[in-house]
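tool=predict chain=A
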Amino acid sequence: MSVNCYCHPNRVATQICCVCSEPICTECSYILADKIMCKRCKPEVLKRVQATVVGQQAMENMRQQSTEKLKQQSKDNLLNNCVLPFFGMVAGIGFLVFGSTIDMDMGPLNILQICGLIIIFIAVMSFLLVYYVYKTELRIISKGNLPRKRKYNRAQNQKTLQKDDRRRPNQSSLYSGGSGTTMEDAVVITTTSEPSGVHAEYRYVEMRCGKRNVDWKLKTQELLEGSDGKSYDLLIVVLKNGTVRDFYFDISSFYR
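tool=predict ok
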């Protein structure tokens, strides 16, 4: 007999809930964002997803407002920084006009006109520099607020898939019997290797309760002998919320 659904004890479990780690049948399983969960955990997960979506929308609105504010500040800085070059341009033109009315016998250009040309050149270069800084700021602001694309990591994705596979009970090769809540309903370990059998016990608890030393901790482990002469291993674990759970394993296949 295989591991049964916790909602329908007479049905074989085909999935493990990603939230509570309980075995569930096909009828009790729901898929949300590529995750399998039971009907008991589905409402809570939906609330979390909706809260996450609202939070992301709020963050996006704040990001857009920040972008518009930075752009406006850059535009104001552009106008302020153009004031001095503008007056320099006016002064240079004034020097050229005023110099053309004075005859200093210094060739085509006199000293005032030369100074005017130099001032105009500096003003033009200042205009170009200010505009370049303005465009650079806009480019940095735009790049800094674009949504980042998640890179697809094939190796990491494969590793995640393998991890998910390890959380699913391999009913055909390692486990049979019941759910392990009592000695009469013990999980039967079918392997004949002691190291593999001990590993299978802890893996079964991880499939039901989550990761060891994170979601649960081992309180005690006892070797028992049943009235039928079989050997049983009792694992008493404490969940993260303080709940104590017992798991009985029939280890007669590798321990006598």
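The beta strands are 15-16, 23-24, 29-32, 35-38, 175-177, 187-189, 216-225, 231-239, 244-250. DSSP finds five helices and nine strands in the chain.
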